[in-house]
Amino acid sequence: NAGVMQNPRHLVRRRGQEARLRCSPMKGHSHVYWYRQLPEEGLKFMVYLQKENIIDESGMPKERFSAEFPKEGPSILRIQQVVRGDSAAYFCASSPPAIPIQYFGAGTRLSVL
Amino acid sequence: SQQGEEDPQALSIQEGENATMNCSYKTSINNLQWYRQNSGRGLVHLILIRSNEREKHSGRLRVTLDTSKKSSSLLITASRAADTASYFCATDANFGNEKLTFGTGTRLTIIP
User: Fold this and answer.
1) B17 CB-near residues (< 8 Å, 6+ apart)
2) A22 neighbors A7 (Cβ within 8 angstroms)
């Protein structure tokens, strides 16, 4: 059973470009979470999705950021018009229904030049 | 913010010694979990303790929870070099699936 897969592992973008981060949850997991981690800090919650639904986006910036988890395919975190402050590690986690334990991917490290 | 704090921020001990990390949080919780993060990697779940539990063991790990003080501790006994990592506590407030609120982490270094 493959773990949570994130790609790319590293992403470099120039200011103003778009960043797309992908996450494939573990098999059988219908809940996906995105977190952001700045250097030397803990993870900050961004968004929680189930298939085709956003359940909680209370941690998502109101502008430029969006997330989806379509019926088919991976979950996508999209950052439009990136700025240097978006540079961080973005982690995806998944969990099965009614289980509070989350399983994390290896993360995508976004660098904005 | 309800983000918790770990104490100490960094800890260095000799291999074979015990390591204790503490976590404080701010709001009522349903569960508290501990995760480990090796440098540059994702988080790995270690242990979960529910709000109605006071202590839990898993191998060399021992977790305590004091809901009256809103605090938890993680004890790693007989430490090994492979235990070198950052350790985070994470809380959730409701039953089932829900976002986790992470603490600031303790960076543990085991000296061979």
Assistant:
1) B79
2) yes
DSSP A54-93: EEE-TTS-SSSEEEE--SSS-EEEEE-S--GGG-EEEEEE
Mean pLDDT of A59-70: 95
Average predicted confidence (pLDDT) for chain B: 92
> How does residue B96 score in pLDDT terms, banded at 50, 70 and 90?
low
Between chains, do A59 and B99 touch, taking CB under 8 Å as contact? yes
DSSP SS3 for B52: coil
pLDDT of residue A39: 82
pLDDT score recorded for residue A10: 97
Q: Would the CB atoms of A98 and B98 count as touching at under 8 Å?
A: no
Q: Is B63 on the interface with A (CB under 8 A)?
A: no
Cβ distance of B96 and A100 shorter than 8 Å: yes
